UniProtKB/TrEMBL annotation:
Protein name in the entry: Carboxylic ester hydrolase
EC number: 3.1.1.-
Source taxon at top rank: Eukaryota
The species this protein was found in: Mollisia scopiformis (Conifer needle endophyte fungus)
PANTHER family, per the entry: CARBOXYLESTERASE
Listed InterPro entries: AB_hydrolase_fold, CarbesteraseB, Carboxylesterase_B_AS, Carboxylesterase_B_CS, Type-B_Carboxylest/Lipase
Record keywords, A-Z: Hydrolase
Sequence similarity: Belongs to the type-B carboxylesterase/lipase family.
Length: 554
């Protein structure tokens, strides 16, 4: 039964009631529907507004996550990363393990959460009680608390509103800092994953499918926030999007959506942590992935895929994700000519992005590429073959030569300053640049000296995703991060201070937070390490390398 003492928000099409977290003193409006179920003819199509259902008060206890999957190489990755970090000279036992073929009898281990459903376009809103009560006592849609929107990461094949942690820690920080008091409104959104959100290719679109459907989901949720967040005490004119990995590269694509031609973006700021995605402008690869899905489903057309039951398409999606090549997820953003008219780095360089975005903050970790690095690439010959056949299959020979001999030459001495000392770290450095580090640099360059800030995360092994444990650090006790290192509470507090201060003001500097310099012409990043939090460091991603990748000559 509903608790009549807890607030209810009327969204017109439905009613949602909060739960109360007494310890943290915040209301949680969980699992709010923001779009119609994307099933049947709406499968592989952009989201639509919810149908009206005011017959019940939703208490948010019916949790939903989008259907997702498990990549076959994740176990090997864990073994390899541990082995390489322990002794980089003792990895010869790792040989190439091809992805499970289309006719394989290998099946993904049963991964589906009981909450997994195609009907998954929901979001959560978490609000400090004093923020909500202040708004409830004053009808004023033009002001309110700053809003922080979390877009989860997970390679575009896994994740949910809650998958990366509980925001209670930094919401509490936002209440105590002078610049962000009395607190921020936190929103976390679901979006479609794997084949259901990121199918692409000429045959797919010819059959009536929409590419980058997951981006349309995110956009729809961001527009919902513009229309409704004032009802929860949030200010629609002070919205910061934030995410890690795929969530951060989603933010990058939201900034450059439609090449900036469709008016204002439904947010004003962005804080993007390690914005990673595979820049794949190759139609042949997208077509191949679509045909593989058809084969798995024993289907011949998109109409056949739309006719499958939810249980059947969820199984197909899971099987397709499982077959991804090492370091890849099989699905993700594509250049579609509409939402993504060109790669975001090109759009940023050409000024084709939303100009109402006032400020950006971004950054990366010192060893981003290792978890994506195929452990079998252990010599120069294998490195060259990987580049020409897997990473840059359409590149001209002179481009491959420039990458292998000028940008990332096979010179393995620390004195070179190249950032690597063996073939594995050479490939890891290259992948870090292509997948995300140069995205940070492109974003910083586009927004200029006074509107862009960057951090360099150096704690623990500093592998991809590790800063997420600092984002969602909740104070008290000893906490270990994803890779087993103890979270440094001082560094976590600084990171959270920067997040909530930036959300509130567009600048991470403020009373009570560690100073950080703008990125600027010096390419400066504020250190996140126990060696000196906030210390300005030169961006280790080389300008010449990033200038090349940003041109997308491949």
């Amino acid at each position: 039964a509903a608790n009549s003492s807890l607030p209810v928000v009327d969204l017109g099409y439905g009613l949602w009631q909060a739960t109360l977290n007494g310890t943290g003193n915040y209301y949680n409006f969980s699992n709010i529907r923001y779009a119609r179920p994307p099933v049947g003819e709406l499968r592989f199509s952009p989201p639509k507004h919810p149908l009206v259902n005011r017959s019940v008060v939703n208490d948010g206890q019916d949790g939903r996550i989008c259907p997702q999957g498990f990549v076959s190489w994740s176990k090997e990755r864990s073994l390899f990363v541990d082995a390489y970090r322990t002794n980089p000279n003792n990895i010869s036992s790792f040989t190439h393990v091809p992805a499970p073929g289309i006719n394989t009898t290998a099946k993904p281990p049963k991964q589906q959460d009981s909450r997994a459903s195609e009907d998954c376009l929901f979001l959560d809103v978490l609000i400090p009680t004093n923020v909500y009560e202040s708004a409830a006592s004053c009808e004023n849609n033009t002001s309110g608390a700053p809003v922080l929107v979390w877009i989860f990461g997970g390679g575009y094949y896994e994740g949910s509103t809650e998958s990366e942690g509980n925001p209670a820690g930094f919401v509490s920080q936002s209440e105590s800092l002078p610049s962000s008091s009395p607190g921020v409104v936190y929103v976390s959104i679901n979006y479609r994953l794997g084949a259901l959100g990121w199918m692409a290719g000429p045959s797919f679109t010819a059959g009536g499918g929409t590419e980058n459907t997951g981006f349309y989901d995110q956009r729809f949720a961001l527009e919902w926030i513009q229309d409704n967040i004032h009802l929860f005490g949030g200010d629609p004119n002070q919205v910061t999007i934030m995410g890690s990995s795929a969530g951060a590269s989603s933010g990058l694509h939201q900034i450059t959506a439609f090449g900036g031609t469709k008016g204002k973006a439904p947010f004003q700021q962005a804080f993007l942590q390690s914005p990673a995605f595979s820049p794949n402008p190759y139609n042949a690869l997208h077509e191949e992935a679509y045909q593989e899905v058809l084969t798995i489903a024993n289907a011949t057309s998109l109409a056949d895929l739309r006719a499958l039951s939810s249980e059947e398409i969820i199984a197909v999606n899971e099987a397709a994700i499982f077959r991804a090549d090492y370091g890849k997820s099989g699905f993700g953003p594509v250049v579609d000519g509409f939402f993504v008219p060109e790669l975001p780095t090109l759009l940023l360089a050409r000024g084709k992005y939303a100009k109402n975005v006032r400020a950006v903050m971004s950054g990366h970790n010192t060893d981003e590429g290792l978890i994506f690095t195929d452990p079998s690439i252990q010599n120069t010959s294998a490195f060259n073959t990987y580049l020409s056949t897997t990473l840059l299959p359409d590149a001209q020979p002179e481009i491959i030569d420039y990458v292998t001999n000028t940008l990332y030459p096979p010179v393995f001495t620390n004195a070179t300053g190249l950032g690597y000392n063996d073939t594995i770290s050479r490939l890891s450095t290259l992948l870090a640049d292509t997948l995300l580090n140069c995205n940070v640099q492109a974003l910083m360059s586009a927004f200029g000296a006074n509107k862009s800030y960057a951090y360099l995360f150096e704690e623990g092994p500093s592998l991809h995703g590790e800063q997420g444990d600092y984002t969602f650090y909740d104070y008290g006790g000893v906490t270990k991060d994803t890779y087993g290192a103890v979270v440094n509470a001082t560094v976590a507090k600084t990171f959270q201070d920067w997040m909530v201060t930036f959300d509130a003001t567009g600048n991470p500097n403020g009373p009570g937070s560690v100073p950080i310099q703008p990125y600027g012409m010096g390419h400066l990043m504020g250190s996140l390490s126990n060696k000196g939090v906030g210390t300005p460091l030169k961006d280790p991603a080389g300008a010449e390398r990033c200038a090349f990748w940003q041109k997308a000559l491949f």
